[in-house]
Amino acid sequence: MDSKKLERIKLIQQALQDQKAIHLREMAALLDVSEMTLRRDLNRHPDKFQLLGGHITLAFDPAAASDYKVTEQGTRHVEEKRRIGKLAAAFIQGGDTVFFDCGTTVPFVIDFIPDELEFTGVCNSLNVLLKLQQKPNCNIVLCGGTFHRKNQVFEHRDESSVLDSVRLTWAIISAAGVSETHGVTCFNFNEIEVKQKVLRQAQRSMLLADHSKFDAVRTAHFATLAQFHVVVSDKKLPKAYRELILGNGAQLAI
Q1: Model-level pTM?
Q2: Chain-wide mean pLDDT for the chain?
Q3: CATH hierarchy code of domain 3-76
């Protein structure tokens, strides 16, 4: 196999470390190849990848039923995440400086930002960086540091960082859990410092969380629901949380 094919396989694997699934069309555009070429690459590696409903996912052991359920769930939520991304992208205006958090929903926000829009995108994760570089009028600021493969986040442990000199219009934050009593949480402690810093510095903050994240509590706490100016979710969001969000004075987009 030539070096270009090997590099494509490596990039696909990197993209799927954080996202459960990515559309064939989106991955082909990212790699700057045709969908047919990408299909041929995938067909050569059935041990690594599979296509489900036009989406690329990592291969799984057919004997492991639990693995199948996880993969299937990730694929099933793609359209919900796409809708949340479209709603969130509508808030971004020309000239804005936006921090895009890590997570599987955030890349869909970038998909729906018009190519002609001029804005500055600030990020600290590889999957978001790969999306921002597709936007021709985006000025990209990457927060460097130690790279964590598990969640594709760059962590900067020094007291000062590039974020100290950036003034954000928006902080777009994802969460793995949202609870009225336990606040907003994620899985990884190495995400907390940046999430909290951008929430303090941004003029406005936006939370992205589909209905399955509500009434869930994860390991690492980083905010309260009341800290967000806008919450973007889906139509299955429980009524109690709709009332709570609106009661906090926040805008709800579903």
Answers
A1: 0.70
A2: 86
A3: 1.10.10
